[in-house]
Design brief:
This protein is α/β, with parallel strands linked by helices and 308 residues long. It is built from 13 helices and ten strands. The structure holds NADPH dihydro-nicotinamide-adenine-dinucleotide phosphate.
């Protein structure tokens, strides 16, 4: 087999025995997430080779049957599919640059968190060395990997995604977003911003409640259903964004502007910080100042897209 034919390796299924022969997998990076990935590949029955910059982190995996590579090149050479999950893209490049020619013909699946531009640059760099590149965004904590709640977003080489679908689906639900390698990190970071926005709202609301010594846990009985009810309005807001028609019969920016004054005053009266809320007030005020007072809150998406 020629070097550049390695990504053609398919998972084979023997109908007479009902057994699937899984390809060997190499995992680079054994932090909390990389270890969970390697452990899942082992559980799924893959021959799994692992490498980590600092030795010693592979001991538990070795007991579960992992092969330990002493050098990164040894790990990359061991498998047609190489999954990388390290701190950041700087680390990814340090590792791949050391690998050199051994990369050619392999499928590199990078599950390290980064930006769309970093993913696109890394894809160009990897494919320039004769390998295939698939980027991924893990929407889960390590304990969820291999369970039904985990989701991994992918973009980049569809050939790699299709070829190794049976391997990748062991990690959790998967979603291929397109051939642009920047899409997985874009969606990943967009979903994380939605999560931080929700957490931020909860943190602020809880600080308000705690200013009167009300137990936070009891408050969740109100705040959880409230957030669930409010999330039902997201598809309508999304429709307004897609059509550009932000007219509302629910709640205008004018009304929200007035409500926010009370809101910020109440925080000051209760002696709590307004740091999380004043950026939203600033956007609402800008929307009104730019002439969008009668529009609904969905107008804020357009303002965020045009920073001043
Ligand atoms: P950890 O801090 O537990 O592990 C970091 C890993 O990166 C270690 O294996 C570390 O090696 C390695 N590393 C750091 N710098 C270098 C370098 N210069 N060269 C080689 N290896 C290096 O992080 P996680 O495992 O939690 O996270 C890994 C990635 O997964 C991150 O991009 C993170 O954002 C993403 N992720 C993590 C989630 C989580 O809940 N943990 C959730 C979703 C995504 P060493 O042991 O030698 O320090």
């Amino acid at each position: 087999m020629k070097e550049n034919e390695r990504t053609e390796i398919k998972v084979s299924y023997d109908p007479s025995t009902g057994r699937v022969s899984l390809p060997p997998v190499s995992v680079i990076g054994l932090g909390m997430m990389g270890s969970a990935l390697a452990q899942t590949f082992l559980k799924e029955g893959h021959q799994t080779t692992v490498w980590n910059r600092t030795p010693g982190k592979a001991d538990a995996l070795m007991k579960q049957g992992a092969k330990i590579a002493s050098k990164v090149n040894e790990a990359i050479a061991a498998s047609p599919i190489v999954v990388i999950c390290v701190l950041d893209y700087g680390a990814v490049h340090e590792i791949l640059e050391e690998a050199g020619e051994i990369l050619a013909g392999r499928a590199i699946v990078n599950l390290t968190n980064g930006t769309p531009a970093q993913a696109r640059r890394t894809a160009a760099w990897v494919t320039g060395r004769g390998a295939e590149y698939l980027d991924g965004g893990i929407m889960a904590v390590p304990q969820m990997i291999g369970n039904s709640g985990a989701l991994v977003l992918y973009s980049g080489s569809e050939k790699v995604f299709q070829t190794y679908h049976p391997t990748l689906k062991g990690l959790g639900a998967l979603n291929f977003l397109g051939e642009d390698p920047g899409l997985a990190p874009l969606y990943d970071l967009a979903l994380l911003s939605a999560m931080y926005g929700m957490f931020g709202g909860f943190f602020h609301a809880t600080a308000m409640i705690r200013s009167e010594q009300i137990p936070a846990e009891a408050f969740t009985e109100l705040v959880v259903p409230w957030l669930q009810a409010m999330s039902a309005s997201l598809p309508l807001m999304a429709q307004a964004v897609d059509t550009g028609d932000h007219r509302t019969n629910v709640s205008s920016l004018y009304i929200n502007q007035t409500g926010f004054v009370n809101f910020i005053d109440a925080c000051r009266e209760q002696g709590i910080s307004t740091e999380l809320m004043t950026p939203i007030q600033g956007l609402i005020n800008r929307g009104v100042a730019e002439g969008y007072g009668t529009d609904g809150l969905s107008r804020l998406v357009e303002l965020i897209r045009k920073p001043v």
